[in-house]
Amino acid sequence: MTLSRRHFCGLLGATSALGFCGGCAVNPATGKQDMILVGSGQEKSIGLREHPKILSQFGGAYDDHRLSGYVASIGGRLAAATETPGLGFTFTLLNSPVVNAFALPGGYIYITRGLMALAQDEAELAGVLGHEIGHVVARHSAQRMSQTLLAQLGVGLLGAVAGGPSSQLAGGVAGLYLKSYSRDQEFEADTLGVRYMNRVGYDADAMASFLQGLRANTKLEAKIEGRPPGETDAFDIGATHPRTLERVQRAVASARAAAPRRGGRQRGKDAYLDSINGMLFGDGPEQGYILGRRFAHPTQRFDFTVPQGFRLRNSPNRIVASSARDNAKILFDATPKPYRGAMTSYLANVWARGARLRQVEAIKINGFSAATGWVQGRGTLGKGGTGPLIFRLVAIRFDARTVFRFLFAASPSAMPSVATAFQRVTYSFRRLTPAQVAELKPRRIRVAVVGDGDTAARFSQRMAVDSFQRERFDVLNGLFDGARLIPGGRVKLVVRKR
Known about the structure:
Protein Transport Mog1p, Chain A; Membrane-bound Lytic Murein Transglycosylase D, Chain A; 3 domains; 7-stranded antiparallel β-sheet; 18 helices; 19 strands; 40% helix; globular
């Protein structure tokens, strides 16, 4: 049976007594009649509840009040230019090196310092914030949640609404930002973002120039990590915001035609570079550092080294090293809960419980109590699809509360050739001395002035990165299509502070 909009709105009215809020109302920003089951008050409550989870997953808020205030001031000006200035927004700069921005219900908007490093000026940052504000004002997250509730209504109206919308959505909202918006929603958010940029006086073309830089960065990261050029990481903004340059440019033209800009076309490059000068780049001390084949964590005071040919990747919950050549992978993490028993018992009764764990033995790793064993299973390592694998498990008691874990995986045919390399990784794990910790310095953005005779090639030699120095410099500074440096201009460098 198909419900018309009128019948649907009637159904919402009939079910409001059972706990639903919202309903059908004309959105003042889009002019559309929203069919939403979640009220604005519930959106605020949901955003407030999920906010700590976002902070936990993305490294917390970046501890720089000056820079966080700068982001909030730009977001606040844009929010004041919306059709609902009293909605109330919370802008958070996340201490994460990934390039992302997203919004939660209730006006909670997040931007990472990784994205700020990539943006070229204040107008590009305003374009990102305006886009996220557009998602909030258009109530796209509420539409997503309503679709979930509608699916539950299809199963059984009374059963779906017995606990009310808030209970039905509990625990599931924090993942909404990882789900791609529809093309129509992305276009609508772009159009609204451009509208607010025009009202404040920013150059709306910055929205397209940022997307060009984002695409170049995504392509470079895929090249560095050996991924297909169009493949994006799940935590990357390209995965959550499937936008094309053509659609962004169309949104800019459409918004300008509907409401010409007020004031000038600000870019704010100098103010932006002044603000990010000295900002952390890449992983910070709380996340640990990838130093070629070595991973070192100054806060938790340990390090280890992976074999030649393995590429390290630092993700929010674990460290991953993979080798396409060897068709093998290494995962490193910490057990989510303390364990007081023997490490052999931890392997058999906790980590590999229920599996046929073989050759379990207690070992010592640089003074740490540890245990190892192996198990057969199935999984996916690369492009070959799912198949049989051998997993070598190593658990290391680091202190009274912390157990670190290595999981080594390879196909049965590859394991004999990489077993010795895996063993060397295991025994490379060590506790760092205070002097060794003191030597570990974070990388930061440093702004430099272009002098006569300076070239991109010369500047790239000063980049504190392990590889692709020139390509990283070009992407970081938006140098595309043969663009050259201009004496007196300013560029971003990545340096390791001593």
